[in-house]
Write a structure and sequence with these properties.
By secondary structure, the protein is an all-alpha fold. The chain is built from six helices and no strands. It starts with a helix and ends in a 13-residue tail after the last helix.
C-alpha cells in the first residue's frame, strides 16, 4: 500500500510539473503571438507609405523636375519598404523613411508657391495621417513587446525561452 501511495504522489508531482511547464509555454506563445499580431497593421501602413512614395515621386516629376536627388531617394526608400518581411525590420525601415518624407514635407519652405498647390497639400496631409497611425501602432507594438520581454525574464520562462529559441523584441521610439 505504501508503494502505491508513493507512485501516485510521484505521478501527481510529475503531472503537476508538466502542467506548469505547459502553462509557461502557453503564456510565452500567447504573448509572442500578440507581439506578432501588433505588427500586422504596420504592414498595411508600409503599403500605404509605398503608395504615398509613388504619388510623391509622380508629383516631383510633374512639378519639380530638377529635384532628381530627392526623387532617387524616394525610389530607394520604396524599394526598401517593399523588402520588409518581419516586425523588427519593418519598423526600422519605417523609421528610416522619415528622412526622405521630411525632405518632401518641407519642400514648401524652399519653394514658397507649393503652399498653394492642392496636390502637395493633400500629400502632406496624407503623410501626417499615415505618420499618426504608424506612431499609434508602434506604441501598441512596444507595449506588447515589453510584456513579452518582461515575461521572458522570469527564471523558469528564461530557461524555456532558450530551449524554444524565443526571440527578443526591440522597442522603437516615436518621433512625437
Amino acid at each position: 500500500m505504501d508503494s502505491y501511495i508513493i507512485i501516485v504522489i510521484i505521478f501527481g508531482l510529475i503531472t503537476m510539473g508538466l502542467l506548469c511547464l505547459l502553462y509557461f509555454i502557453n503564456n510565452l506563445s500567447l504573448l509572442k503571438n500578440k507581439v506578432e499580431r501588433s505588427f500586422i497593421p504596420i504592414k498595411s501602413y508600409i503599403e500605404e507609405r509605398s503608395t504615398l512614395l509613388d504619388k510623391m515621386s509622380s508629383f516631383l516629376s510633374n512639378n519639380l523636375e530638377h529635384e532628381e536627388e530627392l526623387k532617387k531617394q524616394l525610389e530607394t526608400t520604396k524599394t526598401n519598404l517593399n523588402n520588409v518581411n518581419n516586425a523588427v525590420n519593418g519598423i526600422l525601415v519605417l523609421k528610416n523613411t522619415e528622412e526622405v518624407f521630411t525632405k518632401f514635407y518641407h519642400l514648401d519652405k524652399i519653394y514658397k508657391n507649393l503652399t498653394r498647390n492642392k496636390e502637395y497639400s493633400a500629400l502632406k496631409k496624407e503623410y501626417e495621417e499615415n505618420e499618426n497611425r504608424i506612431n499609434y501602432t508602434i506604441d501598441n507594438y512596444n507595449k506588447e513587446a515589453k510584456k513579452y520581454n518582461n515575461y521572458k525574464k522570469k527564471k523558469i520562462v528564461l530557461s524555456l525561452s532558450k530551449l524554444l529559441h524565443s526571440p527578443e523584441y526591440s522597442y522603437y521610439k516615436n518621433k512625437s
